[in-house]
Design brief:
Elements lengths: L4 H33 L2 H27 L14 H29 L9 H28 L2 H30 L4 H28 L5 H12 L6 E9 L5 E10 L4 H19 L1 E11 L4 H14 L5 E10 L4 E8 L6 H15 L4 E7 L6
Parallel strand pairs: 2-3, 5-6
Antiparallel strand pairs: 1-2, 4-5
Helix pairs in contact: 1-2, 1-4, 2-3, 2-5, 2-6, 3-5, 3-6, 4-5, 5-6, 7-8
Length: 375
C-alpha cells in the first residue's frame, strides 16, 4: 500500500530530526574526545558529524518547500526542491572534507603534539561507529521507502562515516601497539572519502536535474496497463517528466484500428488517463493516436515491406506510426534508433535512402524517434 504525500513528508521529517539529534550528540562527544586525546582524526570525524546534522536540516527544509502546492509561477509544483536540497547536502559533505584535509596535510609536514588515547576516547569512537551504522541503515531504508534522494544520500554518507570512524580506531591501535602516530594520514584518508562521497552526490543529483533516461520498469508497467484496454494495439513515444519524487506527468501514443470513431477514441483516452493515474500516479497530459489500417491490403503490404527494410539495421529498436496516403503519394513513420549506434544520424540517412529507393514514387517522411526508456 502506497503512503500518501503527507504521510511520506512526515516520515522524512521525523527521520531527519532523529539524524540531527544523533549527529549533534556524536559531534559533541567526538570533539571533546578529540581535544582530550589531541587527535586530529577524531576532530575531523566530529566536523563530519556536524555536516551530517546540517544535511538533515537541509533535508527537512527541502521537504517542506517541495510540499508547497503548485501556483501560477510554478504550475508543476515545487517537487524538484528535494533534488536541490540533495545538491546542498552534497556540497556540505564536500566542504566538510576539504577543511580537515588541509589541516591534515599541514600536520604531515609539521607534526604537532602526539595523541594521547584514553579508554574513554576509544569507547566514544567505538560507540559512534555503532550509532552511525544504525543511522545509516535507518536513513537508507526510509529514503528508499519514501523515494527521498536526500535521505538516501545522508544514509550512505552515514555508513561511510562508520567506516571512517573505525579507521580512527585502527590509527589508535597502531599508535598504542607500535608507538607510531598515523593520525594525520588517517585524517587525510577520512577527508578524501568524505570529498569523494560529496562529489558523487552532486553528480548523481545534477544528472537527475538534467534529465536521465526514464525508469524502464515504471514505463513497462504503464505500457502493460494501457495495452490491457480493448482496441489498443500498440503503445509508443512515452515521455515521463519528473517534477520531484513521485511527481510525474507525460504523454504517450497509442495505436488503434482505423474503424474507431472520434467518440470511441475520446472515451478510450479518458479511461486510459484515469487508470494510469490511479494505478501509477502519473498524469498523462496528452495521449496521441496512430491509426492501424484494417481496410486496404495494399497498405498492409507496403507497411510490411517498410518494416522488413528498416528492421535489417541492427540499431533499429522499433518502427511505428506507419501512415500511407496514395493520393498525396506520402509515406510517414517513426523509427527508434538505439543510442548504441555510433552515429544515429548516419543510421537514419541509410534507412531513409533504402526506403525511398523501394518507393521511388512516394515522398518518404521518416521521423528519428527516441526511446526514453531504452533498457
Amino acid at each position: 500500500m502506497e503512503m500518501d504525500k503527507k504521510e511520506r513528508d512526515s516520515l522524512v521529517v521525523r527521520t531527519s530530526i532523529t539524524g540531527i539529534i544523533a549527529n549533534l550528540v556524536l559531534a559533541a562527544f567526538k570533539f571533546f574526545a578529540g581535544l582530550m586525546a589531541h587527535s586530529m582524526a577524531i576532530q575531523a570525524d566530529a566536523i563530519n558529524n556536524m555536516s551530517d546534522a546540517a544535511s538533515s536540516i537541509v533535508t527537512i527544509v527541502g521537504t517542506k518547500l517541495a510540499a508547497k502546492p503548485a501556483d501560477k509561477k510554478h504550475p508543476f509544483g515545487y517537487g524538484r526542491m528535494e533534488y536541490l536540497s540533495s545538491m546542498v547536502i552534497g556540497t556540505l559533505v564536500l566542504f566538510a572534507g576539504l577543511h580537515p584535509l588541509r589541516d591534515a596535510v599541514k600536520a604531515i609536514f609539521n607534526p604537532g603534539t602526539l595523541p594521547d588515547y584514553s579508554h574513554i576516547t576509544l569507547l566514544v569512537v567505538s560507540g559512534a561507529v555503532i550509532v552511525k551504522i544504525l543511522i545509516g541503515r535507518l536513513f537508507v531504508s526510509t529514503g528508499k521507502k519514501t523515494n527521498s534522494d536526500a535521505l538516501v544520500n545522508s544514509g550512505k554518507d552515514a555508513l561511510f562515516d562508520s567506516i571512517l570512524s573505525a579507521s580512527t580506531l585502527v590509527g589508535a591501535a597502531v599508535y598504542l601497539i607500535l608507538g607510531v602516530s598515523v593520525e594525520p594520514y588517517v585524517a587525510v584518508l577520512i577527508s578524501l572519502f568524505i570529498i569523494k562521497a560529496g562529489i558523487e552526490m552532486l553528480f548523481e543529483t545534477v544528472s537527475k536535474l538534467l534529465g536521465e533516461s526514464g525508469d524502464f520498469e515504471k514505463a513497462e508497467e504503464i505500457k502493460k496497463t494501457i495495452m490491457a484496454f480493448e482496441g489498443v494495439e500498440g503503445v509508443y513515444d512515452m515521455v515521463l517528466n519528473n517534477y520531484g519524487p513521485d511527481a510525474f506527468s507525460g504523454s504517450v501514443h497509442i495505436a488503434v484500428p482505423d474503424t474507431y470513431s472520434a467518440w470511441d477514441i475520446d472515451d478510450l483516452i479518458r479511461d486510459i488517463q484515469v487508470k494510469v493515474y490511479h494505478e501509477h500516479k502519473v498524469i498523462l497530459n496528452a495521449v496521441g493516436v496512430y491509426s492501424i489500417n484494417t481496410k486496404d491490403p495494399f497498405y498492409a503490404k507496403a507497411e510490411d515491406k517498410v518494416i522488413s527494410i528498416v528492421k535489417e539495421n541492427e540499431f533499429v529498436r522499433q518502427i511505428h506510426g506507419f501512415h500511407m496516403n496514395r493520393e498525396r503519394k506520402t509515406i510517414r513513420f517513426d523509427v527508434v534508433i538505439s543510442f548504441d549506434a555510433k552515429d544515429r544520424v548516419a543510421v537514419y540517412n541509410e534507412i531513409y535512402s533504402q526506403v525511398q529507393k523501394a518507393f521511388p514514387d512516394y515522398t518518404v517522411q521518416m521521423a528519428l524517434d527516441t526511446d526514453y526508456f531504452e533498457s
